[in-house]
Amino acid sequence: MAELVTVNGEERPAAGSTVIGLVADLGLPEDGRGVAVAIGGEVVPRGAWSSRTLQAGEHVEVLTAMQGG
């Protein structure tokens, strides 16, 4: 069974992946434009996305900027 992380309140088998891999899996721009990622309540700088590995049981929030009014 895959190790799970919680992403925006839903469990998914992303443990062992990197933050940038998760962002790509979610269909979001890998360059990070308009995207913010926090793990355990702490923002992960974009420069660390390719090296930050997700650990089983972690809680990840992926936020996207929205336009409009």
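[next item in queue]
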Amino acid sequence: MSLTEREQAILDFERGWWTEDGVKDLMLRERFNCSADDYYNELNRLLDSPDALAYDPLVVRRLQRARERRRRMRLDGTSETGGLQA
């Protein structure tokens, strides 16, 4: 596997960040020293990596499904609750 320590740390963080106390955006800034936008750009690139899939297939597949669901909702003009967006 050719993931960097940072990439592994991102996947490890995504595995269970909600079990920690705090706001995710603040945790991202403290732990990864970057903005939420930069973090999510890096995470999205990572989700397309075969090495990431090999490192943690459950987390990567869960995040890929969530990403695809959000893309479909944007294209369909629906919200997560199924209604039309204003």
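[queue empty]
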